[in-house]
Amino acid sequence: MEPLEIGSLRAFPFGAVTALALAAGAVWSLKRAADAREKKALEIFWLLALPLGLFLAHLGYALCNLDMIEDYFGEVLLDFAGGGYLLYGALAGAVIALGLACRITGVSFEKAADLLAGPFLLLGTACALGEGLIGGGFGWKVEDWFLAENSMSLLASEEPGPLAEFFSHFPFAVRDPFYGYASWAVFLPVALCLGWGLWKTVRLPENGGGRAVFALSFYAAVRVLYESLRQDDIPKWGFVRVNQILSAAVLLALLVLCAMNAGKRRWPSVCLLAGGAALVLVMEFALEKKIGFLEWMTMDLCYAVSAAGCWMMFHSVNRLRKAGRTDSAPEGKNRIKEEGRSE
Questions:
Q1: CA nearest 89: which of 118, 115, 65, 113?
Q2: Is the pLDDT of residue 1 over 50?
Q3: DSSP letter, residue 293
């Protein structure tokens, strides 16, 4: 989409949507602060997180495309208006900012992180929608998907015309503005899924970082599948999709943090994470038809198995999150039961 012009001001759709989500998240988190000290910590956080997040998001994108911009890296790094941002870079800036804000004010890092869990998923949802507005976040061509010779779908046929025509319109698909073909609008179900995760997150109690762990692990698991589904220009290291690797690293880091408080109950979750990651990895090769005995699998089956693997990775962290908070005190057990009902 073309930039919006208001007098002498120009606003790009992705930037406008992101800015609105950030503003709403800031107001939301400040209203949730329980006392003046927490509010002060959040005020410092937002003052630090916005420049830090913007810079590290842009730096992350530049580093992911270093092979293409090596000769003019400095120019790209300073060209903030030219686009190119990595949300995990922004997340790194936010973590640094939150650590500094909590150290200055003495507020618990876990408590502050819980206050920011909802705004984080709100931003993630907005970014997915924003990618759709600028022509990103799309998948395979709908017509190719239903063509039998491509082995993409169980619903494929020799004459895919009627079925392809039905799914070639929004909200199922978006059309290329230059060539007119329709591609799956992957960004929309991803945004809806993250919106559902946001709704689940705000229903959890703000206690010991549990809400933040839920939100971040849910986002990372969804992002793994999203990166596999989309076919637009995305950051890669060689043939590896950067956001998939970073999402898996985030899930592993969260698993380690939760395992520190889970005692002997950690190993089933570790196995669950490893199994989910293995499923996703195998399906990535199966999608490329590089595993002989899996060549019979259509792409929609591969994506379904990948989705199951992503759920396993998310569930492994969420399982440990709950286990780490269970204690012998009756009030602790009651709290866990209430949380289980709310989820």
A1: 65
A2: no
A3: G
CB 109 within 8 A of CB 26: no
Residues 107-149 have pLDDT tens digits of 999 999 999 999 999 999 999 999 888 888 999 999 999 988 8
CA atoms within 13 A on the CB side of 217: 29
pLDDT digits (tens, 9 = 90+) for 264-306: 668 888 899 999 999 999 999 999 889 989 999 999 999 999 9
Spatial separation of the C-alpha atoms in residues 220 and 225, rounded to whole Å? 9
Model confidence, pTM: 0.88
Average pLDDT over residues 61-76: 60
Buried b (16+ CB within 10 A) or exposed e, 10-46: eebbbbebbeebbeebbeebbebbeeeebbbbbbbbb
* Cβ neighbours for 88, distance < 8 A, ≥ 6 positions apart: 60, 243, 246, 247, 250
Kind plus residue range of the DSSP H or E element containing 77: helix 73-78
- Give the CA diameter of the chain: 66
Question: In 3-state terms, what secondary structure has residue 209?
Answer: coil
d(CA 298, CA 233): 23
| CB within 8 Å of 132: residues ≥ 6 apart | 138, 174, 185, 187, 188, 191
What the block records as the tokens of 146 is: 């239903």
In the chain the first and final C-alpha atoms are separated, in Å, by: 38
Q: Which residues on neighbouring strands pair with residue 174, listed in sequence order?
A: 183
Bridge partners of 236, per DSSP, are 241
Q: Give kind and range of the element (H or E) at residue 10.
A: strand 9-11
Give me the pLDDT at residue 338, please.
Answer: 47
| Tokens coding 187 | 């960004």
Instruction: Please state, in angstroms and rounded to a whole number, the distance separating the CA atoms of residues 315 and 215.
Output: 12
Q: What is the pLDDT of residue 236?
A: 76
